[in-house]
Amino acid sequence: MDLSLHLSDIATAVAAALKEDVGSGDITAQLIPAANQAHARIISRERAVVAGSAWVNEVFNQLDPGVEVIWHVADGDWAEPDQTLFELKGSARSLLTGERCALNFLQSLSGTATLCRAYADMVAGTEVKLLDTRKTIPGLRIAQKYAVSVGGCYNHRIGLYDAFLIKENHIMACGGIQQAVQQAQQIAPGKPIEVEVETTEQLDQAIDAGANIIMLDNFSPAEMTAAVQHTRQKTQGAVKLEASGGITNETLRAYAETGVDFISIGALTKDCKAVDLSMRLV
Question: Active site includes 217?
């Protein structure tokens, strides 16, 4: 993900986080004389893939531009236990006020990236791309999807506005797959159109209707293999296939080896565990 396209989102997310944490002012930090300067180290307590430096930088940029943030790692690097990730120099009040907000972003996004790296390793050597979903923490959609890409997985649509995903209820409300795809082509020409199907019959309907991507919902690995071969013969690879539903860590590799183009996994953003980080004044 190109973060330069989402700078305003980063600023908005950080502003909201600072507002909820600092509120009318950090009364505990006011115990420290305003002129006091400090130097701090932020260390990792466990092995993790680092992600979220832009959010950390933005926290101190908004809180106190005079704070110096010195990074010793880059997003995508593995951090080891007790390794220094970055240092802070500046107003003691500012360092302590921004500590929790900055670490909340870094620990959550690093947790997401670390989980995604584990999933990516499970399918290493295959051609499949593991996709995230919209099952993200509210207000952190861009942040988590960025962390997914840092971890070696890929982004599905960002939201409801940049691609069609026509599911069972949409199909029923529209009167059928063909009707739904035709309406999508009229509403937003050029936007990717994905259709979810549950049978081979529906797969053919989606292909014939002009879908760009077809999501195979709850197909077995054997059924998935047959669907991949059928679709490639019928479309010469023009239509991409995505696997979804009922896929576990134990079956992920089998699905990846069917030749399917994508596998979407809600757990990439939904089941992440924050990394243990701490800040120490030195």
Answer: yes
